[in-house]
Amino acid sequence: MTAPSLFRRAGRLLGAAVLAFTAALGAAAPAHADFGTDYHDPFTAEKPLTRPDTRSCTVEVMHDQPFRSGYGNPPDTPYGSTLTPPADCPGPWSAVVMDLHGQVAGRQFDRLFSVRLGGVQVLLSSTPEPSADGIEWRVERDVTRYAPLLAGPQPFSFDLANVVDGTYTGVFRISASFTFSTASSRWPAARTADRVLTTGPFGLTQAAPATDRELAFPRNLERLTAEVYTRGGGACEEFAYASAPDAFVRDNPGLGWCGKGPFRELRLTVDGRTAGAVWPYPVIYTGGWDPLLWRPTPGIFAFDLPAYRLDLTPYVGLLLDGRPHRIGLAVNAAENQSNDLWTGQVNLFATVDHGSARTSGALTEHRVAPEAAVTTVLADHGGGSGDWTVAAARHDLARGWVQTSHGRVSTEVRDDLSFGSDQRLRDGGNDLVLHNRTDLVRVSETWGGGAPRQVRTVREGEPLDVTYRSTRDGANTDQTTAMELGYHRDALTTAGGRVVERESVDHVLKPSAHRHDGDRTVRTGASWEDYRAAGTAGAYHRTVRTVDGWPVEDTRS
């Protein structure tokens, strides 16, 4: 995220007056002096990974690597090395965890970065904005599901495009390591797919809103799942969740709002047929809206962007002929495509039938909408003020079977997804209230092959509320921002009608910030974060409260 894109976004969302105001205050730009010369190292109330207590080996693949010039000649990114699984801790492993440690000082924007193993994306993340004195942060990532890649050495790639000049002085220095934990009776070897395939990176624009790659699958394929890494980029798509309908933008020329509405859908296709949909979480990075909101607590998923998972097993019967098949991705056509750019990568996890060299199958029912149904209700009050409500929904079903060495196995996947956005703009865009809600229910049901009927249901809720107000009175300018972000997930697995696994997460973050210039100077921010989790690893609860960059409450239970 570069300086021009963030300033353009401030203007497009909040109007030309706010553009000048924001530029003067630096509210949408990195400003290391907002809480003095330092603030607490970034941290979160999220539950740390549960790590096995078995013998483990750690392999460092990058040590204190500086990232200064991502656009130089030559650029210093991506950084490449080789990850060699440790001989002293041979697989199969109970867990494989990647740890990152970063540090930066000075003045710098938040920057996105990607980590890949053997060309397969294993992390999409962003950096914090630093203080003058400097901060450190850590990211831990469970990469156990990528273990099929690690039968031998794999190329490691870390891609972080930074810019350092006379103004933006922060150099990111990052280390990366992988810890391989051996298995035991208490910590058995993790169950993973047999192969991991990938489409490689993709980019979707208005001119090219769809892309695909040809991949060949094992002829004894039995199950297939996909994960989609993706994020919106550019001055508008980073904030797509707050965009206005095209009709409002058209009828209010010169104000610079982003159009295309607040709903985004990325559709995964198999040989041109829609097989599933991703509705991206509204991730807000540490420079988003006002950097004071995120010091020291980053937004939900800002340091570990989601990898959205879809069950493609009903389509396995279409992929068993040994020929390449097209796996594609397209951004929704509602509101005539997105504004700027969506990037990412699709990984596919293939599980094979070890009892046969060939399986057969068929897709028997396919009721998956080509794209979600979207409705928009708009009231334009003129002068850059308006109200709109946007709703979207999906009710999809796909069913198929695979003939395996242990019998015919049928799978049905059902998705019920709903999205709603209510937005109110007043005072030429200087007064904004936004309420977004996303509710996702995904069910995968499998039966046959001598196993009891298994049903896995995942329910997710993703609320986002924003209140923004900017005023100018003579020489005085005043800006307040308040948000509530949430992520709620409940995953339930039953076998033969009996509950075999249940996991839940309830994560809420409420940051606020206030800036004032003129008769006095105010730079203040606060946040309240609550994280609850329950499941096989036990219960976890932590609450954190911060004021002006420092924790004032931290309770755990």
From TrEMBL:
Residues 64-85 are annotated as: Disordered. Residues 55-363 form the Peptide N-acetyl-beta-D-glucosaminyl asparaginase amidase A N-terminal domain. Residues 1-33 form the signal peptide. Keywords: Signal. Pfam families: PNGaseA. The keyword Signal applies. The keyword Signal applies. It comes from the Bacteria. PANTHER family: PEPTIDE-N4-(N-ACETYL-BETA-GLUCOSAMINYL)ASPARAGINE AMIDASE A PROTEIN. This is Peptide-N4-asparagine amidase. The lineage of its organism: Bacteria, Bacillati, Actinomycetota, Actinomycetes, Kitasatosporales.
